Amino acid sequence: MRILLAEDDANISSHVADTLKAEGYEVVTLQDGPEVLEAGEEPRFSAIILDLGLPGLDGLSILRRWRRDHIETPVLVLTARSSWMERVDGFDAGADDYLPKPFRTEELLARLRALLRRAGKRSQPIRSSSRFQVDETSRLVSFDGQSLDVSPLEFRLIQLLVENKGRVFSAYEIASQIQGRDDDASKNAVEAMVARIRKKTDPDAIATRRGFGYYIPDDA
């Protein structure tokens, strides 16, 4: 598998590239923002590891451009920015996962493997439950056949539950998956999102198992 590593810190780039190569990945390393933007537009990478602090064009701008142009290559964001709001910005821009610096290479490898597994499952871009339909290519959601207006985080929440029909997720687990954090504020944000989605759809669209969390019933 070929990985694009976009990191302008030479020490980090060299270490990560060597680690990935030792694991059997083919690695292309770039440091300049505009070059990264152009390279990521090519359909030759299985995943992209993207630093946000690139010279010439920052990582968030690059990521937004890719997603605007319907480039769905999985992206793992690396950044020294550690606040939860910046993580939310990264997910809203289209990041698939987020790893703050400093990090252990073992965790980076584990997150990359998980990201590639999820990407493999996305070979079928449209997923559905009995009432929701999620088009992962166009990032659109419909409910009972009607198009649904959702925010990026609401899309990720619905996507997570539809992909795992029948599985119960706590509010903390959902927040960790879609926002990269699992504190009390994130739990409250998830509960508010669920309430908004139910208001847009149906009170039973997302079910609750009291004391455990939320789920979308398995069609079976």
Structure overview:
It contains eight helices and eleven strands. By secondary structure, the chain is of the alpha/beta class. The protein has two domains: 120 residues, Response regulator (Rossmann fold), CATH 3.40.50; 90 residues, Orthogonal Bundle (Arc Repressor Mutant, subunit A), CATH 1.10.10. A five-stranded parallel beta sheet has the order 2-1-3-4-5, sandwiched between helices. β3, α3 and β4 form a beta-alpha-beta unit. α2 packs parallel to α3 and α6 crosses α7. The two termini are 36 Å apart.
What is the element layout, followed by pairings?
Elements: E1 2-6, H1 10-22, E2 26-30, H2 33-40, E3 47-51, H3 59-68, E4 75-79, H4 84-93, E5 97-100, H5 105-121, E6 126-128, E7 132-135, E8 140-143, E9 146-148, H6 152-163, H7 171-179, H8 184-200, E10 207-209, E11 213-215
Parallel strand pairs: 1-2, 1-3, 3-4, 4-5
Antiparallel strand pairs: 6-7, 7-8, 8-9, 10-11
| Poorly predicted ranges | none
Distance between the termini: 36 Å
Largest sheet, in brief, is: 5 strands, parallel
Large-scale geometry: elongated
Mean pLDDT: 87
CATH topology of the largest domain: Rossmann fold
CATH architectural category of the largest domain:
3-Layer(aba) Sandwich
Tag the structure with descriptive keywords:
single chain; 220 residues; alpha/beta; Rossmann fold; Arc Repressor Mutant, subunit A; 2 domains; five-stranded parallel beta sheet; four-stranded antiparallel beta sheet; 8 helices; elongated
